[in-house]
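The following record pairs a protein chain with its ligand, zinc ion.
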Amino acid sequence: MDRRNWLKVLASAPLAGIAGSWPAIAKGERTVEELQNNWKSLLAEGADVANSSEPLKLADAEWRKRLSPAAYDVLRREGTERSGTSPLDREKRPGVFVCAGCRLPLFTSAMKFDSGTGWPSFFTTIPGAVGTSRDFKLILPRTEYHCARCGGHQGHVFDDGPAPTGLRYCNNGVALAFIPKTG
Ligand SMILES: [Zn+2]
């Protein structure tokens, strides 16, 4: 997102976020930029992650082989998991969330908040980790986002998240894998 769009998002953010507990960032402990730049401080030593967002392109049959049916449906078919079904919605340990398709780190635990929606929710991402597109599946257009490396669909981003970004990345838990900082 360029700076102009970013400011537009901030300006359009509602005064109060949606229900749920507030992330550390809301208490003014750290800035979003710090959380983004220091994301590796939450990465477990020797963790199996993709180290670059260099595109990973595989044939559909190969994705089918690699992924569970539920992960395939979300990542490769833009499906949506049932709310409240992912254990990652309740995951509160320090660590990093990677794409279930290609292991690219997308979010850290410090970027997560409890949105009360039943889907893991984040107010920002690791820099450059996701790309976005418009989605017209429902009547109102939504902003779809996906892994920058494998293109796997992750979820939708809304502008009713908590301060200071005002963003809510509503993620399918089955499209993520969690790596706790200490194992
Ligand atoms: Zn990926």
